[in-house]
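Running low. Invent one:
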Amino acid sequence: MKATATTKAKIHVQFEARLEPTGDLTQARRLGGGGVMVSDHTIHRYMQDRSHKTYFGYDISVEPLQDGSTLRVSILPLSVDPEQLPLENAATWK
């Protein structure tokens, strides 16, 4: 699953999720999608398992430093609730 996002600081980030082992298409079909959301310097990347109404993901914080040529990248736990994600009947997801 590929995704792209651009922060408000105009920093472009590309994602590519890969499942291991690569031959197991059953799990790939069950995931059923996901996406990205952007808030300030943080990109929220999530994937969803529609059959079990579960989701998971992570945040990537990308901050330009004062020198103008360096970025601070942090990978953090997903900080959005199901109600903030475009999920059908979000209150039933965990």
